[in-house]
Structure to design on (134 residues):
């Protein structure tokens, strides 16, 4: 159980960084689709499904590795909720362009939350480096 917690603590910020990188990729893919690249929208939809899985991984690893850090768990829960809502606005939620546009807007909230989650736990990587330097 202790080992699982340790693994979760390392995977957690890595997963959050992956969310940030994937949102950048999503913006690129949707822009590529707007500029007429065939297949780019499909790629955007496929990558979008993966983003939600990684967002849920961020929450799962927060619960397993950082349960005592209520702020970290809260931010991770917010990322999961906003992430699922964000994807739902693309098609399932709402019936007007003004509401569907929340899909694009909330992508900014997703990237800010994920960046904050990763930044709060950057010590996971920095501490071993500092110790190695002595
Ligand atoms: C966190 C970043 C993003 C994720 C995870 C994401 C994910 C997705 C997913 C999963 C779909 C397919 C939805 C479905 O078929 O039910 C989709 C469609 C779409 N997304 Fe995104 N997206 C992101 C960012 C953006 C941004 C920034 C824009 C534009 C500013 C955008 C515009 C669109 C459009 C136009 C569609 C097509 C909707 C349709 O088929 O009617 N997305 N996205």
């Amino acid at each position: 159980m202790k080992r699982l917690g340790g693994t979760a603590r390392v995977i957690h910020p890595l997963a959050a960084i992956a969310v940030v990188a994937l949102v950048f990729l999503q913006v690129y893919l949707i822009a590529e689709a707007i500029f007429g690249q065939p297949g780019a929208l499909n790629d955007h939809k496929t990558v979008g499904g993966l983003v939600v899985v990684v967002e849920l991984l961020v929450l799962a690893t927060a619960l397993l590795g950082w349960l005592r850090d209520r702020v970290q768990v809260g931010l991770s829960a917010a990322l999961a909720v906003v992430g699922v809502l964000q994807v739902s606005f693309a098609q399932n939620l709402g019936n007007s362009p003004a509401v569907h546009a929340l899909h694009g807007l909330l992508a900014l909230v997703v990237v800010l939350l994920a960046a904050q989650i990763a930044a709060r736990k950057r010590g996971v990587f920095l501490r071993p480096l500092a110790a190695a330097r002595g």
Summary: The chain has six helices and no strands. Helices lie at 2-34, 40-65, 70-91, 97-100, 102-120, 123-133. The CA atoms of residues 62 and 73 lie 6 Å apart. The chain has one domain: 2-133.
